[in-house]
Amino acid sequence: MTTLSEAPATGRTRTRGVAKLLALRTAAPDTVVPQQDAFETYYRAQYRDVPKAEAIFRGSGVHTRHMAWDPRTAYADGHPPIKARMAAWEENVLAMSRRTVGGLLDAAGRTGDRLTDRIGSFVLASCTGYAGPTPDILLAKEFGLRRDLRRTFIGHMGCNAAFNVLKTAFDALAARPGELVLAGSAEVCSVHHRPEFNAEQAVVNALFGDAGAMTLLAADDGGATPGPVFLGTHTETHPETTDAMSWHIEDQAFRMTLSPYVPFYIGESIEPFVERLIAPHGLGIGDVQHWGIHPGGPKIIDFVGGKLDLTPDQLAPSRAVLAEHGNCSSATILLILDRILREERPAPGEHAVLMAFGPGLTMESALVRF
Description:
This protein is of the alpha+beta class and 370 residues long.
């Protein structure tokens, strides 16, 4: 877990942001699946008629993944129906979120100052399943959150959904600055392996893993207390590329399509997109020290890094999360932010740009000042 309230303050003049990040916690299923072993013992036989399958898995940038359903055992006797997959999704979203929400509350001294009474909103995203009551209701009950808690569950928005969570949280804080907000996501991608064996699905099955992450947010107080601040967000949708990425429910499992041209589409748009995020704050690309790029695949990191002239060190957090967790859909960008905070330990006054991409084709971003 990353806890941030003790970060040193800087003496420079600060502009007020939309929210302060008080704490961040991440979680993942306990089962760790080595990429090469999974390919040799399961995927090689499944994709025996796809000549490029081994190259796809080796070139994915993924070394290990945390997976609720280990493909080597979960699919050994066939592919379960959607009912079993949704039951596993709900079980694992709740398990990961218990760890993230519980960790945040414990770290913030839940029993000491009745933090639960100060949490006025709870925003949770997951695009890998559905159930009602939604997981946020069950978690609010379990942790004794307020009966008048404002809850928002965001589904099916894809890998960029963490930004929709954050923006909803920012609006809640703007309306009620005296309250706190829990905001995060949990994804169980491993329950959607399909009996469909082609190159496109090999790419999907080589990339996606499971994870959850949760933040505790407060309204920015203009620098009176230290800690990272979200200065703003920027969103763009490119409807001419709506067919490039999709996520649909089918009889046996959800089905993702992913065009190999997605990195090219993003690369063509990324520089002006980032400039529209940071220019209102008086920053240029060279003024941003830290970068979190959603690793939809290694080529997206390569294309974005090349277009923005980023260094290997600036790309390292995104590559490391891809290597250790795979693409965990909406939770991934929060895993990357956690890694930036823990490993890079940004100095007060430095900035980070976070970005993710999803169906639409939608591009989401946020600017953080440490």
